[in-house]
Amino acid sequence: MTVIDPKDLNKKENYRLLTSIVTPRPIAFITSMSEKGIINAAPFSYFNIISADPPLISVSIGRKQGIQKDTSRNILQTEEFVVHVTDEDNVKQVNETSANLKPEESEVKKTGLTPTVSSKVGVPSIKETAVRMECRLEKHLVFEGEDSATDVIIGRIVSYYAEDKLLSEGRVRTDKLQPVSRLGGKQYAKLGKIFELERPE
């Protein structure tokens, strides 16, 4: 057994180790909008549920050389965003949106994705997604590191959207959705075998 002290690792080394341990990770494909109306889209795998009541999700967005990414900045300005599920049909386009573009450039436009009107927020959704959650900013936290910082965005879900064919008894059929998860490095994973376990009483 090897013992590793995170203090002995730099940011890149900690990232490499963490992202190979905490797997698989769901990928939040987030649209946000600048005050000038430019639609930003980017994937984030530091993402999860916080609570069902109230319905809250969290996404962590690391800064680059201390500078906030467009997604963080836009959410803090407009206090709205949309989280889309990354699946087998859209993962390649989602990956393309991770390119480093200038704030005045739209990843949606560059990748040929189709913006569509959201039901409860002003930020557009992406048509090429089967499941999405419209969110309003609930809380913003900042965690400072030695060389950088991370913005933690907590969003309150104000609307769910799911294609009819995926819904069954108040749930999304995961087997039909075919979500894609993030592993370490350049690796992704498909759903794989599904099994059930009964919880003990």
UniProtKB/TrEMBL annotation:
Belongs to the flavoredoxin family. GO terms for molecular function: FMN binding; oxidoreductase activity, acting on the CH-NH group of donors, NAD or NADP as acceptor. Keywords: Flavoprotein, FMN, Oxidoreductase. Residues 20-174 form the Flavin reductase like domain. Pfam families: Flavin_Reduct (PF01613). It comes from Alkalicoccus halolimnae. It comes from the Bacteria. Its EC number is 1.5.1.-. The keyword Mitochondrion does not apply. It is an enzyme of class 1 (oxidoreductase). This is Flavin reductase family protein. Its cofactor is FMN.
